Amino acid sequence: MSDTSPGLPGHGTASVLRGMAHHWWVFALRGAAAIVFAVLTIMNPGLSLFVLLAFLAAWLAVDGIATIAQAIAGKGPHGAWNWLDGLLSLAAAVALVLAPGLSLFMLVLMAGAFAVAAGVIRLVLAFRAADVMLGAFGAITVLFGGMLLAYPGSGLIAIAWIVALEAAVMGIILLVLGFRLRRLNREMPAR
């Protein structure tokens, strides 16, 4: 594999990227789950709080399980960041399921805090892997989390649309990243 892989310049020697490339489909799965969540939320902006919580918890659970699967499968030195990202997603999902009576204000704060924390973790991973797409993933997550924290008094429909927009953007980024990693995986020599 050369250092001039299409779409991933300069990443021929990055061990973390090689490990991610072998499991490119996990990124695509995360992206597809995020897009499905976004479409369902946009189609039904007036969902009750409990249904919105269920959709959000399901998305976070799929994202957490998929990220932990990446951490288990990854052999690179940066697997701890994937573990932290996955465990944070699962913890947020469990909290939403176990406490369905949370006020909208608390939901907004939880979602915002999760997004900021996960975004920072993803930015660290992107910096360590020197990958722009991972950086965009983290930066957009921090941006949307900050928006939720800055305006917690917004209505349920506005929150649903913000969360759906973030999920759609993240889904697209993860699908693009997944298929770029797939291309890189095909170019790598067999071990």
TrEMBL record:
Swiss-Prot/TrEMBL keywords:
Membrane, Transmembrane, Transmembrane helix
Q: According to its record, what are the GO cellular component terms?
A: plasma membrane
Pfam families reported in the protein's UniProt record: DUF308 (PF03729)
Name of the featured protein? HdeD family acid-resistance protein
TM region positions: 24-43, 49-73, 104-125, 132-151, 157-181
